[in-house]
Design goal:
transmembrane helix, membrane, about 55 residues, transmembrane
Length: about 55
């Protein structure tokens, strides 16, 4: 039960790290920062949704 939310949290964290990597490669501009923030919020949302499912 708890392991699923941990897996989703790791997946979300990986997604935000990948998003940060691509944003930094594109140039650390405002859009890149916005993209990182959006990916991070999405990762938190996915983790919270997975936690509420269990």
């Amino acid at each position: 039960m708890e392991s699923t939310s941990v897996i989703w949290y790791i997946v979300g964290l990986l997604a935000s790290i990948i998003a940060a990597y691509y944003a930094l490669n594109a140039g650390a501009n405002l859009w890149g920062l916005l993209f990182i923030i959006t990916a991070f919020v999405l990762a938190l949302f996915i983790a919270r949704a997975a936690r509420s499912l269990n």
